[in-house]
Design goal:
Number of helices: 2
CATH architecture: Sandwich
Number of domains: 1
Radius of gyration: 14 Å
CATH class: Mainly Beta
Distance between the termini: 6 Å
Strand order of the largest sheet: 1-3-4-13-8-11
CATH superfamily: Jelly Rolls
Helix content: under 10%
Number of strands: 15
Structural class: mainly beta
Strand content: over 45%
Order of helices and strands: HEEEEEEEEEEEEEEEH
Shape: globular
Length: about 140
């Protein structure tokens, strides 16, 4: 699926946000972050936008108990993959529940902008461990 910037901007209701410079070392390509809300008990909601072909590195949302992440796809088309499994195509309205301690990555398809709300699930001793990049070879094998 393709989605150019002009069409994407019309559908990205939570806004592009600012360049995601704080985490840029963990992304291939440019991403943007719009922090939406954070609750008193530690649930965080952020709209993350990926330019075409942008993806984050493999990573793990670790937790002793609880934890993990939920992705709510809002605009454009993307990918999600857990280690050892096939990549899943993502479209607006898709929801991905990522348990704690599961190695995964997510990002845009080659010809589409992509946006999702990332919900950080509170837990005990939570952390994010950033790992190796998703190589061009791995990414280019995906069938848009």
């Amino acid at each position: 699926m393709k989605m150019n910037k002009e069409e994407f901007d019309k559908k990205n209701i939570f806004g592009l946000g600012e360049p995601n410079v704080a985490f840029s070392e963990y992304f291939i390509g440019n991403s943007y972050l719009n922090q939406l809300a954070k609750t008193d008990n530690g649930i965080s909601f952020a709209n993350v936008t990926f330019e075409p072909s942008c993806r984050n590195n493999w990573h793990i949302h670790g937790a002793k108990s609880g934890g993990g992440q939920v992705l709510i796809c809002t605009a454009g088309y993307g990918w999600y993959q857990e280690e050892g499994k096939n990549a899943q195509k993502l479209s607006p309205g898709d929801i991905v529940v990522i348990p704690a301690n599961v190695k995964h990555w997510h990002g845009a398809r080659k010809d589409s902008w992509f946006s999702h709300i990332a919900v950080e699930v509170p837990g005990e001793e939570t952390s994010t461990k950033w790992l190796e990049p998703v190589t061009d070879e791995e990414y280019d094998k995906l069938d848009d």
